[in-house]
Amino acid sequence: MDIQQALAALRTYYGYEQFRSGQRTLIEAILQGKDVLGIMPTGAGKSICYQIPALLLPGVTLVISPLISLMKDQVDALNATGISATFINSSLSIKETNERMREVASGRYQLLYVAPERLESEQFRSLLRSVSIPLVAVDEAHCVSQWGHDFRPSYMSIVRLLRDLNPRPVMAAFTATATDVVKDDITERLKLQHPVKVTTGYARENLTLNVVRNADKRDYLAQYVKDHKGQAGIIYASTRREVESCHAFISSLGIAAGKYHAGLSEDERGRTQDAFQRDDLLVIVATNAFGMGIDKSNVRFVIHNNMPKNLEAYYQEAGRAGRDGEPGECVLLYSPQDVVTQKFFIEQSDADEERKRNDYRLLNEMVQYAHTGECLQQTIVRYFGEADSERCGICANCTDERELEDITENAKFVFGCIAGVRQRFGVTMIAKVLRGANDAKLRQLDLDRNRFYGRLSAMTEKAIVQLIHALVADGYLRLTDSQYPVVQFTERVREVIEQDGRVYRRVEREQPRKITSARTGRSTGTRTYGSGAGSSGDHSELFDALRQLRKQLADEERLPPFVIFHDSTLQEMCRLKPQTEADMRAVKGIGEAKLAKYGSAFLQVLRKYR
C-alpha cells in the first residue's frame, strides 16, 4: 500500500484531490505500521487520518470515541460516502447489539465505533479476539491524561484491550488540543511505541476571537443573537442554573433555542441535540456537558457566557465554530464572578492537592487571556507551545484602534504597593490599599500605613483590579497557584523600576464594540452568510436555495444537513455553478457515492441559476 492508493480513496469517497497539512504524514505512518499521535485543531480533518487507512487495511478498524452522538454523526457521514461503518453503544437494545456484533464478525464493516466503557465487556473483547483488528484509533485522546481538561478513567481500559489482541494493532491517537505535558501523558498511558507525532498548528485562520469585559451580559446576548439571526450558534454557561436562566432569556426574545445540561433527562438531551444537528434549532444554551466531538460543521458562533476553567477547555469549545472552514466567531463574556465559580468547582473536586495547584495555575492563565492586550489567537497558540506564532490580524485586539495610554505612573504605584506588603497579598487586597478603602481588615493588618495607600483613589476598585490583572497578563506580575493567589513580581518589573521602561495600555471603553473581520471587511455584529448562515455577495439567493434542498433531503433521510454536504461545498457550487455531473466532480467535497445519490437534485437547482 502506498500514498497513491490513499489519494485515490480520498478522491473517490470524499471528493478531494489533496490531503491537508499533516494528514499525509499520519496516513503514511499508519500504512507503514507505525503508531501515531496527531494534534490537529477542530476542523483540520483528524478523522480522515484513520478513515482512509481503514479503507486500505484488511479487517475492521476499531474507533474509540467518547460520545454516542459523535459516533452516530460519523457513522451517518461515512455511510453517506459509501463506506461501511457502524457503532455499538448503550443507545442500542440487546437484540440490536447482538445483531451488529454478528455483522462485525462476518466482516461486513470497515470501521466500528465504540465508547471506551464497551472495552470492559468480556463478550465484546471476545468478539475482537475473533476478528482482524489492524488499527485502533483513539479520538479525543486528551481524555486519557489526568492533566488534560476532560480526564475520563474509562480511557484507561484501552491499554488493557491491547493485551487481548494478537498481533498488536497499530495505535493512532488524535485530539484537537494538548500541551506538551498532555502529549507525553497520552504517549505513556496509551503505550504508543515510538509514535510519529504531528502537530499541525493551533491557529484557526477562519475564527475571529473576542473578549468582552464590563458588559451587561444579557444586553450583549440580546443584541448578538438578533444581529446573527439565521446562524447556528452555541452559548456556553458554567452551571445548570445559568443555562436555565440564559435559555429563558434567549427564548423571551422570540429566538427558538434549546438547552442542554446534565440535569435534564437523557431523552430530552437527545431530542435537543438532534434538533440542533438538523438545523431545526439554530441556537443552543449548554454547559460543557454538550459538544465534545459534536460533528456539526456549520456552527457560525460560540459565545461563552461564563469563563471556562482553562484555555485548553476554552479553545476546544470555541473551536466548534467554523468547522467547515467558513468564518466563525468566538466571544468570551468575562466577569470576575466567573473566577469565583471556577475556584468553587476546583475546591469541590476530589482531586489531590497537586492536581488542585495545577488547576489553579491553569485558571490563572485563563484569567490572563481575558485581560491581555496581545493578539488573542497568538496568546492561545503560545500557550500550547508555538513560540514563533504570528499575530492573526483579525481578533478583537489586533483590530483595536483605540489609543495607547501611558500608564507607567499607575503601574509604579501598583508595584510599590506590592513591594510594601512584601508580595504577601492578593489582587483584591492590593486594590483596596491603592483605592484607600475604609476597611477594618486593612487597618487590622496596618495596610492603611502603606505609603501607597490611597494613591489611586480617583479610580474605582474594579478598575484597579482590572489594571492589576492587565499587568499580570502583560507579564509584569504573576499569581501564585493557589485558591487565594498572591500577587508577585516577575523580572519584567525591573524594566520599569530600574531601566525607566514605559507601560502602555489601550484606553478602556465604556461599551463593547463590534469588531470588524480583516478577512471580510464587515462588522461581526452584522456579518451574514446567505440569509444568515454561510454565503457571499451575489450568491446568497442560490446559496439559500441549495440549503433548502439540502434540508429537505436531510429531513427525508433523517440526517443532519451537513452529512449531505458541508456549507463550504455549497459555497463552491455557488462559485462554480456546475451544469453537468462531470462539472460536479470538480466541486470539493463531492465523492462518487454522494454524486450518484444527490448530484441530480442539486444540478436541477443550479441550472435555474445558470
Question: What does this molecule look like?
Answer:
The chain has 610 residues and is α/β, with parallel strands linked by helices. It has 4 domains: 3-199, P-loop containing nucleotide triphosphate hydrolases (Rossmann fold, 3-Layer(aba) Sandwich), CATH 3.40.50.300; 207-383, 3-Layer(aba) Sandwich (Rossmann fold), CATH 3.40.50.300; 404-506, Orthogonal Bundle (Arc Repressor Mutant, subunit A), CATH 1.10.10.10; 537-608, HRDC domain (DNA polymerase, domain 1), CATH 1.10.150.80. The chain is built from 25 helices and 17 strands. The strands form 4 sheets. It has a 7-stranded parallel sheet with strand order 3-4-2-5-6-1-7, sandwiched between helices. A 6-stranded parallel sheet has the order 8-13-12-9-11-10. Strand 12, helix 12 and strand 13 form a beta-alpha-beta unit. Helix 1 (3-14) packs across helix 3, helix 14 crosses helix 19 and helix 21 crosses helix 25. It is globular. The model is unreliable at 516-537 (pLDDT under 50).
In short:
This protein has about 600 residues and is an alpha/beta fold. About 45% of the residues lie in helices and about 10% in strands. It folds into 4 domains: about 5-200, P-loop containing nucleotide triphosphate hydrolases (Rossmann fold), CATH 3.40.50; about 205-385, Rossmann fold; about 405-505, Orthogonal Bundle (Arc Repressor Mutant, subunit A), CATH 1.10.10.10; about 535-610, HRDC domain (DNA polymerase, domain 1).
